Amino acid sequence: MAATIRDHLEESLGEADFPSTRNDLIDAAVDRGDPTAVQALRAIPDRDYANLAEVLRAVESADGVGR
Fold it and tell me: N or C: more exposed end of the chain, with fewer CB within 10 A?
């Protein structure tokens, strides 16, 4: 089964500290070596995110479709 964007984000950001800025989240995904997560995170608004759920909602909104 192919991994979804959600899977990539959960894996890349599972140990991220929140609240976190978009750039902090991108750095965490880069550190994990996940270009799919990095690409998704670059598309979200530049603001602070309180938790992973907020990040996932932002990615779904930026994509225009829930994944």
Answer: N
